């Protein structure tokens, strides 16, 4: 009889396990929809996105129809992929929740500004279904959005949503988001009149100054590299740039016109766990001026010769960015007039210690974006209108929203007792609230949903 006990227990366990699996509720329908219902653009091309409510289990084809107004396909514009009889197909890759296509204006074409294209999702391959935003209007001019709902695409692949790989820049008036991999850059060079350099707080980078100007002679013997550790209670605020965006409090000091004043810095380009990369993955950098721009000197800490990269200022952007890994100038932020807030992971603080976490929302203060928090005890989101703006005090603090919009302890989820007002650089004022961000409130960590609505149009 004893020999039967173990098999019986196994069968009993399997029976319970299978019963539990049968009792699990089915996943909700996976729906495909345009990211927004209206979009505008200036320039030569733009991207239009279709998003699923969750990642596709297999490659999913979506057919799209287009109807141009005051435009002719092939004469004034084209698409990628190309359209045949005003229709084309895009595919959501397996494991992804996004597909996109491009609209390109033909070279040398002059437009009046009343041209537009209406796109409509025609069919979606099973098991995915067509969702709510079945159509979107693309205007060949900048628009001032009346508002929309949008899900931010913070995930690159299968990383944890708590350490989402993308920073997501959002332009409210244009209904556009721009996800950028946090690990794609290391240094940002101010495009303004001052000569300032930032390190990558979103990658939890840290840096220490070495009292030398000859980058080739700097070695691990010149500093205690273990002091570069940052995160999990390790490290100090002197290792990274001011989280409020104060450019007078960057680790790398203002770049002097006197070359001999510009020291070498050693950078641990990615952190967050308190660990420091091996010496052959640490970088040493030195920045000097070159005319109205910069020259970056860089090498790995174990190398005895350095390379250089010239960076030119561009007044249309807050910063120009460079990657030490790819050794190139890279695109990160959109033009400064084309984003209002950025969501993502970053070094920040908890109490009096440095702490890195996701879901932080910062303002584009370099473009004079302002915000205010409104508690629902004062006015509800739905009822808030232009008349309610009286008495509102807007803040220029970069972290006025920060992580205040959600809770990760106790009742995890979006805080429903508050929403935010955002004043953009054109004076448009939007009310904005988060809908969800976590499984506990019906969302997905790393892909928060929010909605916003125009309260007052700028002058």
Descriptive report:
The protein is globular, with a radius of gyration of 25 Å. It has one helix at residues 2-23, and strands at 31-34, 38-40, 45-52, 60-69, 77-80, 87-92, 98-105, 116-124, 129-130, 135-139, 147-151, 166-171, 176-181, 187-190, 197-199, 206-210, 264-268, 283-290, 293-300, 307-311, 319-323, 328-330, 341-350, 353-363, 370-375, 406-407, 413-414, 418-423, 429-436, 449-456. By secondary structure, the chain is mainly beta. The strands form seven sheets. The chain has a five-stranded mixed β-sheet, with no helix packed on it. Strands 2-10-8-4-6 form a five-stranded mixed β-sheet, with no helix packed on it. The protein has a five-stranded antiparallel β-sheet with strand order 11-30-29-28-25, with no helix packed on it. The chain has three domains: 31-143, Immunoglobulin-like, CATH 2.60.40.2030; 186-330, no CATH class; 336-456, no CATH class.
The helix/strand class is mainly beta
Largest sheet composition? 5 strands, mixed
Question: Oligomer, anyone?
Answer: single chain
Structural domain count:
3
Helix fraction bin:
under 10%
Proportion of beta-strand residues: 35-45%
SSE blueprint:
Elements: H1 2-23, E1 31-34, E2 38-40, E3 45-52, E4 60-69, E5 77-80, E6 87-92, E7 98-105, E8 116-124, E9 129-130, E10 135-139, E11 147-151, E12 166-171, E13 176-181, E14 187-190, E15 197-199, E16 206-210, E17 264-268, E18 283-290, E19 293-300, E20 307-311, E21 319-323, E22 328-330, E23 341-350, E24 353-363, E25 370-375, E26 406-407, E27 413-414, E28 418-423, E29 429-436, E30 449-456
Parallel strand pairs: 1-9, 2-10
Antiparallel strand pairs: 1-3, 3-7, 4-6, 4-8, 5-7, 8-10, 11-30, 12-13, 12-23, 14-15, 14-21, 16-17, 17-18, 18-19, 19-20, 21-22, 23-24, 25-28, 26-27, 28-29, 29-30
């Amino acid at each position: 009889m004893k020999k039967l006990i173990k098999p019986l227990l196994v069968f009993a366990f399997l029976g319970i396990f299978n019963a539990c699996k049968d009792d699990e509720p089915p996943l909700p329908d996976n729906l495909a929809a345009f990211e927004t219902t209206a979009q505008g653009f200036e320039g030569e091309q733009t991207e239009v996105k279709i998003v699923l409510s969750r990642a596709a289990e297999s490659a999913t084809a979506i057919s799209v129809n287009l109807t141009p107004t005051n435009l002719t396909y092939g004469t004034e514009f084209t698409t990628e992929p190309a359209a045949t009889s005003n229709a084309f197909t895009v595919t959501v890759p397996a494991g992804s929740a996004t597909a996109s296509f491009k609209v390109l204006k033909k070279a040398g074409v002059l437009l009046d500004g009343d041209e537009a294209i209406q796109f409509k999702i025609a069919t979606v391959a099973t098991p995915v279904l067509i969702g709510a935003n079945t159509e979107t209007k693309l205007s060949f001019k900048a628009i001032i959005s009346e508002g929309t709902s949008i899900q931010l695409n913070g995930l690159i692949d299968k990383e944890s949503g708590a350490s989402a790989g993308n920073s997501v820049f959002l332009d409210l008036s244009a209904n556009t988001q721009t996800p950028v991999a946090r690990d794609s850059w290391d240094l940002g060079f101010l495009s303004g009149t001052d000569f300032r350099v930032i390190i990558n707080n979103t990658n939890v980078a840290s840096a220490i100054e070495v009292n030398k100007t000859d980058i080739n002679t700097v070695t691990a013997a010149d500093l205690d590299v273990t002091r570069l550790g940052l995160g999990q209670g390790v490290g100090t605020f002197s290792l990274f740039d001011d989280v409020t965006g104060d450019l007078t409090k960057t680790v790398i000091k203002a770049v002097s016109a006197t070359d001999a004043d510009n020291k070498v810095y050693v950078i641990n380009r990615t952190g967050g766990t308190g660990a420091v990369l091996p010496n052959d993955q640490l970088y040493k950098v030195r920045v000097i001026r070159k005319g109205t721009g910069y020259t970056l000197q860089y090498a790995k800490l174990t190398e005895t010769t350095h390379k250089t990269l010239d960076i030119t200022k561009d007044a249309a952007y807050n910063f120009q960015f460079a990657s030490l890994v790819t050794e190139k100038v890279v695109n990160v932020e959109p033009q400064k007039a084309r984003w209002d807030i950025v969501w993502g992971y970053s070094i920040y603080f908890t109490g009096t210690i440095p702490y890195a976490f996701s879901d932080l929302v910062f303002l584009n203060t370099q473009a004079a974006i302002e915000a205010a928090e409104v508690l629902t005890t004062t006015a509800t989101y739905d009822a808030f209108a232009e008349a309610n703006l009286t008495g509102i005090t807007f803040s220029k603090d970069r972290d006025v929203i920060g992580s205040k919009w959600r809770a990760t302890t106790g009742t995890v989820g979006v805080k429903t007792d508050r929403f935010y007002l955002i004043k953009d650089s054109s004076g448009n004022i939007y009310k904005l609230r988060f809908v969800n961000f976590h499984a506990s409130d019906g969302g997905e960590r790393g892909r928060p949903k929010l909605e916003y609505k125009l309260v007052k149009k700028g002058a």
